[in-house]
Design a protein that fits this description.
disordered N terminus, Immunoglobulin-like, 1 helix, 44% strand, 5-stranded mixed β-sheet, mainly beta, 4-stranded mixed β-sheet
Length: 259
């Protein structure tokens, strides 16, 4: 018991000494207000390198590293930053960007969009189109994520975003695999645009996109589950001219849960 008490006393003294040596500046102030707005980041730029996303000079996303050094991978094509979660951000005007994560051209901004973030609102930034490896840039755009005011526990909310630069405006359709009932998810959506969130009953759906006035499916994805009370974004990415069903740059419907 005496030995244990001595050990505890030494531990307390060491902790006190460590804290004293840090000085007042070492104490982090975590009592400030939490940023009221949120933003999510997508790397949908075909052939684009992996990036870290920034708002002005503030790094908003990162990849876990086991070495203690910053990962050189970043958010790769088809990926969503921060594990698909929103990042908190204060209201104001920003230049949001994707900066190269690799050692070569480290932190070079390849996509930059100036946008205004309003208090209490949600947004998504999409790198889109085709990466120009010579100019080292790729397009991008920001859409506001206008959720329904109240959570609907009877159905899911789904919207369609078009990030394919060489596509025609498209409408997303969802066909219930049990009832075979098909519904349009909003209306026709052009490149760099997002549709409205639409109520979809809980279930499993086959998804497809079509151009206005056509019954021919342009992009398809089967067996996508929508859970009541949740909110989803279906994002179209890739090259609309690719017919392969396995190519990385094929036209594809990404399913990301917003909340």
């Amino acid at each position: 018991m005496t030995h244990m008490n001595r050990f505890r006393s030494v531990a307390v003294l060491l902790c006190a000494a460590a804290l004293a040596s840090c000085g007042e500046d070492a104490a982090q102030d975590i009592t400030g207000p939490v940023a009221s707005s949120r933003i999510k980041f997508f790397n949908f730029g075909v052939n684009a390198p992996g990036v870290n996303f920034y708002a002005n000079d503030t790094k908003m996303t990162a990849i876990t590293s086991a070495t203690g050094a910053e990962s050189t991978t970043g958010t790769v094509y088809g990926g969503v930053g921060a594990g698909g979660f929103y990042s908190a951000i204060d209201a104001g005007q920003y230049t949001v960007s994707g900066k190269i994560a690799a050692t070569a051209d480290k932190d070079l901004a390849i996509s930059k969009i100036t946008t205004t973030i309003e208090s209490g609102k949600f947004y998504s930034f999409f790198m889109s189109g085709f990466y120009d490896a010579t100019a080292k840039n790729v397009e991008g755009f920001v859409v506001e994520d206008v959720f329904p005011a109240a959570i609907d526990f009877a159905s899911a909310q789904v919207r369609f975003v078009n990030a394919i630069s060489n596509s025609s405006p498209m409408t997303l359709y969802a066909k219930n695999t049990t009832t075979t009932t098909e519904v349009a998810i909003g209306s026709t959506v052009a490149y760099k645009s997002g549709g409205v969130f639409t109520s979809v009953l809980n279930g499993v759906y086959d998804l497809s996109t079509r151009t206005a006035g056509s019954s021919t499916s342009i992009i398809t994805r089967t067996a996508v589950s929508f859970v009541a009370g949740r909110v989803y974004t279906i994002g179209a990415r890739g090259d609309i001219t690719v017919v392969s069903t396995t190519a990385t740059n094929r036209p594809f419907l990404d399913n990301t849960m917003n909340r």
